[in-house]
Amino acid sequence: MKRWMLVSLLTLPSLAAAQRPDTVAAAWWQHVQVLANDSLKGRDIGSAGHESAARYIARQFERAGLRPAGTDGWQQRIAFTEVALDQPRVQLLLKSADGESALAYGRDLRLTPRPSTGNVEAPLVFAGYGVSLPQAGVDDLRGLDVRGKIVVHFNGVPSGLSAPLQAHASRNRWAAMRAAGAVGVIAIGAGGVWSDATPAAVSYALPDSMLDDARGQRLGGTANPALAARLFAGSGLVWDTIVARAGRGAPLPTAALNTSLRATIPTIRRTVSSPNVVGIIPGTDPALANEVVVYSAHSDHVGTFKGPALTGDSIFNGAMDNASGVATLIETARLAAQRGGNKRTLAFVAVTAEEKGLLGSRWFAAHPSLGTRTVVANLNTDMFLPLIPLSGVFAYGYDESDLADDLDAVVRANGLSVLPDPEPQENRFVRSDQYSFIRQGIPALAFKVGYRPGTPEEKIWQGWVREHYHKLSDDVTQPVNFETAARFNSMYADLALRVANRASRPVWRSNSFFATPPIP
Q1: What does the alpha-carbon distance between residue 254 and residue 250 come to, in Å, rounded to a whole number?
Q2: Is CB count within 10 Å lower at the N or C end of the chain?
Q3: Spatial contact of 341 and 394, defined as CB atoms under 8 Å apart
Q4: Strands (E), 352-449
Q5: What are phi and psi of 415, to 5 degrees?
């Protein structure tokens, strides 16, 4: 008997008995089991498994009473360009005053292929952290000539930035570099373990090139810290000093380097098709029905193990990441439809290609399949981790908009609290789909079950991240706190209706960096 069937048979009867008359957790768990089943092979985009997941989600939306709101029924299909590196043909040559030396792909430098990737020969320039946010008082590109050059930067951020801005800065260096004329970028970190392994280098791009964060990037990669001395040779920069300053978050020097790089970077391309799934509950108020509150969760995961053959399990089932969030999306839709009375339209969107760089949500936020309706808010859940008793939630983006006021009211009514993010360095603000809406100027929040530092709950939460995140063990055999899942789902539906029925549309805080779109 398959493991998921065994868990279902053993868990659901006792769960249903424990939860009566509330069956939210039982229904939620059933969705998780279906979406994380071995037969879906990890729900990678373009796969039969992900297509099956999309059809299941559409059926559940229909049963919940939603109306289809894709570009083709329930679906908004996207044609992605897959760009793969032809690794055996890659050639890298570092030039310095002492002559030329070959670099080994994997050992010295790893590359991420992009639509603009190709052969390039260019001087190198060091740009400190590579962060250009003049509005926040940080601009490492100021006074630095990067035209026609490859920008090398330390892979970190300076101190003094808020957690959301720190995350945004980490993700969006290239936009400013491109605007200043750079042709490529190389990140280099402080050290640690560097593996010479060369995993498959593949990236995906949207049909709209203006949504390609790496457009114009002919070379993008990460350098082995052991290469730093060769990159900086003759420049007067001392790598150990840079690392020490970066460890304090202090400003870093910038300078033209006395080295250049010649790279031959062949790629292989194909088109991969994958759908967002979109359903709506139309608003009841004629004055507000054209305003839409979008609930989102990503339906894709990372497929199957691509390395050497394994004995036994080779499927990344993605039970928590993110079958759990899609199950909550479905149950929130069902609960909201049952309660009714939403003045604004509620849209429920299972987005694809989150694991490829938030691409499905990026497309939907820029090209919503909602006709003349206007998206006014986004609420997102991704791997919300119902592993511990629910005492509070993490809300990424909490300080940026007045959606925080709605959340405060809902969590208080449910005997909960909003807890501060204990790990801003993890940049979770930009690592899930609400960020795509924020970049379009739409107030948004993302949620996880929260913990307080120093508690047993922290150990469980962090243990899961360490042992199960993007690992084969993220399946339906892992422990789950069903009471937490049920309470979280109920709270989430409360929030949906509160935002849908508030008197005014959500707005940014006056001091938020993200209040003036478009955000690069």
Answers
A1: 13
A2: N
A3: no
A4: 374-381, 392-396, 417-419, 444-449
A5: 70, 30
Are 264 and 319 spatial neighbours (Cβ–Cβ below 8 Å)?
no
Query: What one-letter code names the amino acid at 128?
Result: G
DSSP 401: B
* pLDDT for residue 26 is more than 60: yes
Is 260 within 8 Å of 95 (Cβ atoms)? yes
Rounded CA separation 246/188 (Å) = 12
Question: Under 8 Å CB-to-CB from 223, ≥6 apart: which residues?
Answer: 108, 109, 152, 186, 187, 188, 231
CA angle 169, 115, 367 (to 5 degrees): 70
**Residue 24 scores a pLDDT above 60:** yes
Q: What 3-state DSSP class applies to 424?
A: helix
Whole-angstrom Cα distance, residue 53 to residue 276?
11
pTM recorded for the entire structure: 0.91
pLDDT at residue 192 is higher than 50: yes
In which band, very low, low, confident or very high, does the pLDDT at 516 lie, cut at 50, 70 and 90?
confident
- What local confidence, expressed as pLDDT, does residue 194 receive? 84
Runs of H (alpha helix) within 277-320: none
List pLDDT tens digits, range 453-471.
Answer: 999 999 999 999 999 999 9
What average pLDDT does the segment 26-55 reach?
97
Confidence of residue 19 (pLDDT cuts 50, 70, 90): very low
Residue 100 tokens, joined: 């030329």
Neighbours of 286 (CB within 10 A): 8
Residues β-bridged to residue 276 = 76
Residue 63, CA atoms < 13 Å, CB-side half-sphere: 10
d(Cα 479, Cα 33) in Å, to the nearest integer? Answer: 13
> Is the peptide bond preceding residue 481 cis, with omega within 30 degrees of 0?
no
Whether residue 213 has pLDDT greater than 80? yes
Name 122's Cβ contacts closer than 8 Å, sequence gap at least 6. Answer: 148, 149, 150, 183, 184, 219, 260, 261
Q: Which residues of 392-407 are buried (b: 16+ CB within 10 A; e: fewer)?
A: bbbbbbbebbbbbebb
Task: State the sign of the Cα–Cα–Cα–Cα dihedral 66, 69, 73, 76.
Answer: negative
Q: What per-residue confidence (pLDDT) applies to 311?
A: 56
Query: How many angstroms separate the CA atoms of 462 and 468, rounded?
Result: 10
CA R_g for the chain: 24
Q: Residue 515: CB partners within 8 Å, gap ≥ 6?
A: 441, 508, 509
Rounded distance between C-alpha atoms, residue 198 and residue 191, angstroms:
18
